Amino acid sequence: MPTISEESNEEIMRIAESLDTISKAIKKQADKLRDDPTRLEPALNILHKATLTPKGKIIITGVGKSYLISQKLAATMTSIGTRAISLHATEAVHGDLGIIDKGDCLLALSYSGETQEVIRVCEIIREWGDCWVVGMGKSIESPLGAMCDAWIECLVDEELSSNVCAPTTSSSLMLAMGDAIAVLLMQKRRFGPLDFARNHPGGFLGKQFQKSL
């Protein structure tokens, strides 16, 4: 095995420790759900119900890193059978709210639960009174939580760099949680390989599925 300097070894060990921190946060989330499955049921029921109609969809909103997570989750959901779009909370109040239809579900992402742009969008949707609002963040006991019909808790003990608190562990957990929910919605719709091949004909995955069909 090639040798490396002591400094490089220490740096790589720090990366390994960071990965451990993220994996422990995800494991802790899984354990919470096993201990109390009811904590997630209301949110899942709403997300599923919103997509049962032909035009029903999930609108995922956020700003900053949460908006980037919303883009990835919307792309994943769309590719595996759930109608979803990403909506930047700032742009929403400048005309983009027009994409939301009666019966849709707004999935609002904010780890702190205090992001004003996201809260404003939720306030407007609540005023409309014909859409669901589901929140995802660290605590339902937050301004955002007070606006929601259901809550998806994603609480972490620490970020990877606690001295600056940049979203790292929390953003990883929220993304993982969103992916897990996306797969469950896919399974509930009985979305299979033929459906995926239809949606994803390009790239390596598309070629692999075309070969197997």
From TrEMBL:
GO biological process, one term: carbohydrate derivative metabolic process
One Pfam family matching this protein: SIS
SUPFAM superfamilies with a match to the protein in the record: SIS domain
Superkingdom: Eukaryota
GO molecular function, one term: carbohydrate derivative binding
InterPro entries given in the database record: SIS_dom, SIS_dom_sf, SIS_Kpsf
Location of the SIS domain: 47-191
Protein name: SIS domain-containing protein
Source species: Coemansia brasiliensis
